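Incident log, support desk, overnight shift.

02:14 A customer reports that sequence design results differ from what the structure should imply. Their input is reproduced verbatim below. On-call engineer (initials T.W.) acknowledged and began investigating.
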């Protein structure tokens, strides 16, 4: 079913969210009348960060305008006449708005379609009996939205009270002026003859007494109104703090954790649209309350009445300033992290975003963001508010960027597209630490004001840890440092402390996540695979998974100490397997054709019970990034006996010459893939087609693999 048809069935807050997507930048009528066309275009293929894609966006803009004009032309009748004019106007409006920036139109429509799909998906999940998503997440969203509604009502209530207070105070001042006028009249009586004074004085004294009694009562009433209003504001600020804590300390921290795990191959962290909408609601409510508190303070200054209200208002003003400061500084975030393994003299990108920038009109005076690379020690000092004297640990080119406001999506962000680390200054290393274990971070900082320079904020945010390398050969070990940090970092840690040892099941989860992402496969590591890895990591022979659940692995075991009898670490071996599979074996791994994580003895035990010619594929124990073929056949030296043979491992270099499938095809003595699948059934779809006939009298040579001993053992 078309998304637009389902979107029209949304209700309540979801409907309100959907409607808020539209406006002058993109009228809802255009979405309605061109729904089929809009949903049929390939908006996602356009890279919004690539200016060269602008011509594609321009073509889509022109097509959109043409579609609108065609729709307008086909309108007939009285109602059709009005619609014809309306659609024609929208065509001109969209052309005028986006003709010079067609990529913004694509950004706008992608945002609209993505949000509608999400709202429809959430609504269908909540209404379906299986809707598991309706439990925790949807309930939390519901609680947040309910709290916002409560805040809206409280803010409206205090606004009404403030107006009432202002009205009463204005009337009080009028009456106070009246009392002064009466007093002036009484004073002027001294110039009159005694008879006249005695005639008029009693009336004026009575009037003065009445007015003064009223002023005394009303002053107490005004003071009570002020105290009641301050108490209501205290309640609002308590709820605001609580709501802000949920959004910033729970939801935003969870998003950052998902972003960190995505660096290890975890699922994407998800968009920031919902978080931004919440933060914008917070900003709006905080600002409304701040303005109310300031108006209350102005009323107090206009008419001072002795009492505790001055101190209360000072406390409220201080609290609301703290709340808005926390909101602004916490919502300056890195939307797209720089690469965590960073090679010098290589271009890299990052995107920084201020979630409340649009709502607080920060874009009216666009702030500049600066990027600096700093060491772990400098990051610690920064978080302790120690003076780092603007120290850096290297030089980044193109490290300044102005934040841009995208009206269609309401986002304020700085896109660093062409940064490059020119040089790095390393610190003294500790003990056995290598350069690929040293962590840096990119510090992004900016300064801007809100409310017409009422408040000035200096904001800073740190990237995820970065390991700097100068040569591709260091990538493997640097990736190990990043993997360990992303997987095991605790929220709110001191930069960049991680545990030195972790439980084996925790490491298995991280390795599986990384493996699936690198190989781009839904087939992860099975329990048998993980037992094999545990045997390798702990030099154990146990095949019982439970034996490893309580065991811990240290960082040294992971990537400092070589495996027994080898010149490489556990991680280096595992990374080699991932690289080989990613580059050359992905389809075979996905097909289940590669057992892979099997040692030599296990392979022998498995094959000896199978017919001759049965083979399996396993990763080499002795070589990084190698895979070998093991098969069972006759022993040429002992007639009647059988044995398992192992080919010398293949590596990336071998597969760049001839593929695994072709090599298996070349070896006629390989008949069945373990346990009993004919090899052609598994691999034939990957064989290179036979060469064509000779061209111009030349025959193209062909490379084939031969195993000399094979003739003896088939």
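02:41 Re-run completed on a clean worker. Output:
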């Amino acid at each position: 079913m078309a998304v637009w048809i389902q979107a029209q069935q949304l209700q309540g807050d979801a409907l309100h969210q959907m409607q808020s997507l539209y406006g002058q930048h993109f009228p809802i009528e255009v979405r309605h009348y061109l729904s089929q066309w809009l949903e049929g275009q390939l908006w996602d293929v356009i890279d919004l960060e690539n200016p060269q894609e602008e011509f594609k966006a321009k073509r889509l803009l022109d097509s959109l305008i043409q579609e609108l004009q065609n729709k307008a032309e086909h309108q007939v009748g009285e109602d059709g006449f009005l619609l014809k004019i309306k659609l024609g106007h929208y065509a001109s409006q969209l052309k005028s708005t986006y003709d010079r920036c067609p990529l913004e139109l694509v950004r706008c429509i992608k945002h609209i379609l993505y949000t509608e799909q999400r709202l429809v998906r959430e609504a269908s999940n909540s209404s379906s009996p299986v809707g598991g998503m309706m439990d925790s997440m949807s309930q939390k969203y519901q609680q947040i939205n309910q709290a916002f509604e409560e805040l809206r009502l409280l803010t409206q209530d205090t606004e009404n009270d403030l107006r009432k207070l202002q009205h009463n105070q204005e009337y009080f001042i009028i009456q106070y002026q009246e009392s002064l006028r009466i007093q002036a009249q009484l004073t002027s009586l001294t110039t009159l003859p005694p008879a006249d004074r005695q005639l008029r004085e009693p009336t004026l004294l009575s009037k003065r007494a009445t007015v003064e009694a009223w002023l005394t009562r009303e002053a107490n009433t005004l003071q009570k109104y002020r105290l009641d209003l301050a108490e209501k504001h205290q309640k609002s600020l308590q709820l605001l703090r609580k709501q802000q804590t949920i959004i910033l300390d729970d939801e935003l921290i969870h998003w950052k954790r998902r972003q960190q795990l995505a660096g290890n191959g975890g699922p994407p962290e998800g968009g920031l649209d919902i978080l931004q909408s919440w933060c914008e609601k917070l900003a709006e409510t905080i600002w409304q309350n701040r303005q109310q508190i300031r108006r209350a303070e102005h009323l107090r200054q206009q008419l001072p009445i002795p009492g505790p209200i001055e101190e209360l208002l000072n406390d409220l003003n201080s609290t609301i300033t703290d709340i808005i400061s926390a909101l602004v500084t916490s919502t300056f975030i890195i939307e797209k992290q720089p690469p965590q393994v960073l090679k010098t003299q290589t271009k890299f990108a990052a995107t920084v975003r201020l979630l409340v920038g649009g709502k607080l009109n920060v874009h009216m005076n666009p702030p500049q963001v600066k990027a600096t690379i700093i060491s772990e020690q400098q990051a610690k000092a920064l978080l302790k508010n120690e003076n780092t004297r603007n120290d850096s640990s290297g030089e980044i080119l193109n490290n300044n960027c102005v934040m841009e406001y995208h009206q269609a999506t309401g986002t304020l962000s700085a896109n660093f597209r062409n940064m490059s680390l020119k040089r790095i200054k390393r610190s003294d290393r500790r003990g056995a630490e290598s350069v690929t274990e040293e962590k840096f971070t990119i510090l992004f900082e900016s300064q801007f004001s809100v409310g017409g320079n009422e408040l000035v904020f200096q904001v800073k945010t740190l990237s995820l840890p970065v390991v700097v390398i100068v040569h591709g050969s260091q990538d493997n070990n640097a990736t190990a440092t990043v993997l360990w940090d992303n997987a095991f970092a605790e929220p709110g840690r001191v930069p960049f402390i991680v545990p030195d040892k972790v439980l084996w099941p925790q490491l298995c989860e991280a390795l599986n996540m990384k493996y699936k992402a690198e190989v781009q496969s839904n087939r992860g590591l099975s329990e048998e695979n993980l037992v094999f890895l545990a045997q390798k990591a702990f030099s154990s022979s146990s095949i019982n998974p439970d034996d490893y659940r309580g065991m811990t692995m240290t960082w040294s075991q992971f990537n400092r100490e070589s495996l027994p009898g080898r010149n490489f670490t556990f991680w280096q071996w595992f990374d080699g397997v991932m690289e080989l599979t990613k580059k050359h074996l992905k389809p075979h791994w996905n097909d289940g054709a590669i057992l892979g994580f099997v040692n030599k003895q296990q392979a022998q035990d498995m094959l000896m019970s199978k017919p001759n010619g049965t083979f399996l594929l396993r990763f080499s124990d002795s070589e990084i990034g190698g895979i070998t073929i093991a098969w069972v056949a006759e022993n040429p030296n002992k007639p009647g006996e059988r044995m398992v043979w192992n080919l010398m491992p293949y590596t990336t270099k071998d597969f760049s010459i001839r593929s695994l499938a072709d090599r298996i095809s070349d070896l006629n003595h390989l008949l069945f893939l373990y346990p009993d699948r004919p090899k052609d059934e598994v691999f034939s779809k990957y064989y290179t087609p036979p060469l064509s006939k000779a061209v111009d009298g030349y025959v193209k040579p062909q490379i084939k693999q031969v195993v000399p001993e094979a003739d003896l053992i088939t």
